[in-house]
Amino acid sequence: MYNYEAELVLRSYMPKELEKGMLFVRVTEHETILWELETIPFDKEKFLVEHGAPMEICIIDGDDILAEPHEIGWWDEGEHVDELRPISLKDINVIINEYDGWLDIGVGSFGSDNGIRAYENLDQGTSWISRSTGLPHNDKSPNAGNWLIWEDLNRDGCLDILMAIQYVIPQVEHHFIWLGDGSGNWTNNDFSLPAQWIWGPYGLDTGDVNNDGWPDVTFIKKIGSNYVPVVYVFDGASWTEASSGLPTSLHYAPLAFGDLDNDGNLDLVGLEEYSSETKVHAWLGNGAGQWTEIPLIATGIPALPESVTLADIDHNNYLDIIISSDQGDYEPGGIRVYKNTNPADELAVTMREPLGGQVFLAGCVRKIEWTSCIPTGTGTVTLQYSLTGDQGPWYPIIEQIIDTNIHQWTIPNVNTNNAFIKATLSSEGDSISTVTPRPFMIIGQNTPPNRPVFTGPTTGKPNEQYEYTITTTDSDGDTLSYLVDWGDGSSSGWVGPYPSGSQVKLSHSWGTLGTYQIRGKAKDINEVESSWSDSIPMNISVSKIDVTIKGGFGVSIILKNTGNENLTYIPWSIALDKGLIIIGKSNNGILSQLKAGEEKTIQTKILGFGKPLISVRVQDTMKNATGFVFFFFTFGVK
Q1: Sorting pLDDT into bands at 50, 70 and 90, what band is 331?
Q2: At 396, is the pLDDT very low, low, confident or very high (cuts 50, 70, 90)?
Q3: Degrees (nearest 5) of the Cα angle 64, 66, 67?
């Protein structure tokens, strides 16, 4: 269970004195801007009247302040508080990381010599503790770059930190990667990545460029007087440059990986700093480290580049480009969006993350990301996972959520090296699915319950209770709880637990005429759910069906709806008992529809001899007759 209401916020406060680095808010007609105080004004009171009070970070839950900056552990005893407070949005990168089910925080500092810190969320964001053993800190006066990325680089299930660091002592030493052990201990290992001079406002992103399951990296590299994008692919032990086709001159800054043309290979977007302007470039990747630039996306953007983000903002299933730039060190610039122009003309969904090769530990939280195309209206998404390949069986993650293109998934306590995720997009009666292209691994100590068997009646009347039975087994011998979806928007809720293999009986009534699809699922003591059972149709009706049994060629039943309601999904069965019946001893089926006043005939073939008892059941109506069977014919039915 996660408390998503507690959050980090900025609030105003009244300082005794103004200090450099304090944050202020400027509101214009078109935007709200956070800016940092660089020069202390002569007249404090006049400055505060003109610009308002400065801002500080605290944690709130609704209207309640849970923790002040000095209470939440954002600095250690003995450190200089003023180095981390107030926090500069330009110099500090705050990234969210998940491991134990609570969201933790990573912080990088440039200009304050505080390097990188990781903070563990101890209790719903109300208190924090530094988990930074091995990260660069005050001892060498490190400066951090503008990008901090969490990535499981060595695929051990524990998140690592990628962030450019320049040590002031000694000045020539630079590092990039710190491997985490999941307990707050970090070990620097760059695997000999040649990453000099990449701290500061330069690009950094990770992604699987060659689709081998290992994370690869792009960053800006200084070559002579040029700052150019480079790509290095990782094999778990070393790096190989894969930058063929990328520029080797001029000055580039922010970078972002993303599959722009939906061909299954990552592409690269980069912003060029040209004089005092910004240009937007993109290069298509072929999955083998070859890059081809497409026509320039935008040019002549005033101000210098600051960031680039890729997201599908208009639901056409293609990534759009969002950039920010500024007019100088602390002057406002702007945010610009460049939309892909492919039309949203058919239902589509594409998986973006995970794509395969990842290792997830049971109990941690990871993101599932996708894009979608919805021609008209809105849509919902159902997410499922498989433990045994891309054909299922499929276990529920979450069902019928609003199509936001992202979901935080708490990894179930299961064990597999062949996991897949399926996303199903539904809109206006249509649906389409996509599956992760390659398997990923989940490390746990449990297996899901087997798929339940769900049985019970298929016809009934309004407001009457009907009993159903659900049962399954668990290979780990865990006790099981059950949930039944009654098909009318209600469910039984989780009931249990019961011993594995128990026959659990549940009852329900329906107040409205119609046909309802009923299904059930189980979960074990580790909260791991089974897949859904097969659905059972339940037809609730007050209409009357007249049943007539006739002979002739085989046996026929004539059904007439004498009520005022159209009927759907009508089960029927015919059984012949006694006599020598070789073919046609029993038959059954579903009549899809019988309108009010309509009459339909169902004929079955027989082969036999003798005088059987003919038993017919249609919904909950039973009727019997006798007759004489001679080869393929029935005579004297009464």
Answers
A1: low
A2: very high
A3: 135
